[in-house]
Amino acid sequence: MPARRTPVSPLNLLLSCEHGGNKVPKKYAPLFRGADAALCSHRGYDPGALKLARHLAKNFGAPLIYEEVTRLLIEMNRTLRSPTLFSEFTKELPEAEKKELIARYHAPYRARILETLKTPALHFSVHSFTPVFNGVRRTLDIGLLYDPGRSLEKRIAKQLKEHLSPRFTVRMNQPYKGIADGLTKELRRKFPDTLYAGIELEVNQSIVSDIEVLRALEKALKEVILGQY
């Protein structure tokens, strides 16, 4: 008898976008004088990711949690123990000011995510990646980041790749590892495989705003979600 699948319905879909913008709150503007290049680069935010996340959330009627403050102020996709929680612009701040940043931005973001995860959920954390990193051109269109040790995540990632691969170069756990420090890894510690599946969707910035990409991802997600029944 085949193993029973964990049901994940469209109502349980959650979308998030940790790097949705490069805004600098007025209070912290002095820290970023002369930093326009960094703020406008992939280091400051994930161009196109929030637009993609909003498109998917609207079409699936799913909740979307996002942040538009630059990741260079505080990194929403890192845990509190991560050495890269604060960037070179904020890492030298006094501990009291770092705690204020955590209390004002990081902690409320986590709280909004947890408030949404009250039922079994399929969570897609939407990101984009720079086509060229350290002078090397990346050769993938879409990356699916997941934990290979979580059966539901592994199955969903495999199904997504099957639906997307005919048109796009899709790679598993590239350009980053799905088990690296981040929001989905943190949530896996809180919820078992039967209650939570967290996949980071990484899209090449050269195609992230392409309408064909939006439609393909929407269709693939729909097929995968329906397949969980």
Notable features of this structure?
229 residues, globular, alpha/beta, Aminopeptidase
Report on the architecture of this protein.
It is built from six helices and eight strands; from the N terminus they run βααβαββββαβαβα. It has one domain (10-226): 3-Layer(aba) Sandwich (Aminopeptidase). The radius of gyration is 18 Å and the shape is globular. The protein has a six-stranded mixed β-sheet with strand order 2-1-3-8-6-7, sandwiched between helices. It has a two-stranded antiparallel ribbon with strand order 4-5. It has helices spanning 36-40, 49-60, 95-116, 151-164, 183-190, 211-226; strands at residues 13-17, 64-66, 121-129, 132-133, 136-137, 142-145, 170-172, 196-204. It is of the alpha/beta class and 229 residues long.
